[in-house]
Amino acid sequence: MSNLALLRLILLLSAITTCCCAVFSRKDMDATVPQIIASNGYPIEKHRVKTEDGYILQMHRIPAGKRSARRSNTYGGKGKRAVLIVHGLLGSSGDFVIMGPRNSLSYILADAGYDVWLGNLRGNMYTTHQNLTRNDPAFWDYSFHEHGKYDAPAMIDKVLNVTGLSKIFYIGYSMGTTTFFTMMSQKPEYNDKLIAFVALAPAVYIDNMKEISVFFLKSMDIATTLRQRGMLAVGLKQDIMDLVAENFCTAKNPDQDVCMRFIYAIVGEDYEQHNWDMTPIIIARAQPASWRQLEHYGKIAMTSVFTEWDDGMEGAVKPYKLSNVRVPVSILYGENDLLVEKSGILRLAKSLNETGVLHSIKPGCNWPKFNHLDFVFAKDLGKLVNRPLVRHLDELYNKYYQQ
């Protein structure tokens, strides 16, 4: 989301001198997603996907759980179920493994017998381009419109081709949900390739972001200013990110905390579900984003319409076609999510219900302080959300899957 990215940018650029000592694993900050998965005892495969417009995306597959799950007939056999999980802004496939086997969605799904595929949208460290480098402005000329038009369809087709299945599940978090809805608007034929869609904190209607979008993207025009100064994307070099994480994000007390104070001001405070040891790791592992992504979200916020980008911030408003969605949609939201507020969630649910595709809408869990980031980083995420989510997927499979 636009304000979260701006928040992290401000955080990284802030000249805050508070520094507290803490012990955390350098390995967890630097390890790749395949290394993290393998270190936890799970099988891991890497797959390369090429989009129609030349981006190369690395997908990470966990085809089974640990030994007990691998002996089940769902691993590589008849009746296996595959799920594609797509991350949010500033994220990567790592968001669904970094909290460990007890909490991260990927491991819990794999242990339940699912064939888990973790997507990476263009721009993060697991993506490249056949012709362009990251120093080329053209590399960063995209928003979630292109995620939906090119990236998600390519990843879905890859899963289907490798597994031989006719349909899979799609789980999206934040911008991963925006990607789903833009995909269906542009390529409705992909309805036929999905069993159901689970939307975690769906980022579609974000009227509450209007003021901050007007200030940063219109009045200050921060995107244009920083582009002109050579900052092609939202994010800093990895060594600077690591420096910030190690020196400014290691406090373990709300009174001394710097990083989470900034973040909670935007996404909603939830210190009870915050794992203090993870703060520097989460910050250091944040991925770059394109300015166009922020600008596109800003246009949606300022117009109060889930609109295409077309000819820019001041360009024509052309709503995406939510009516193109034909697969069952389940929505999970956070009661204390200040980034994607409940009013926007309910507006989306109403639209989907009118076309008969809304399967359910409910809070992600019964914890009243559950916020936007808790869907991937909550201390008790496994118990609160992900284990119940597996049971929900089982129900969706039994109700809607038809070969």
UniProtKB/TrEMBL annotation:
Location of the Partial AB-hydrolase lipase domain: 33-99
One BP term from GO: lipid catabolic process
Domain of life (superkingdom): Eukaryota
Signal sequence extent: 1-21
GO molecular function, a single term: hydrolase activity, acting on ester bonds
Keywords per UniProt: Glycoprotein, Hydrolase, Lipid degradation, Lipid metabolism, Signal
Classification via Pfam families: Abhydro_lipase
Active site: 174 (nucleophile), 337 (charge relay system), 372 (charge relay system)
PANTHER family cross-referenced by the UniProt entry: LYSOSOMAL ACID LIPASE-RELATED
Sequence similarity: Belongs to the AB hydrolase superfamily. Lipase family.
Protein name (Swiss-Prot/TrEMBL): Lipase
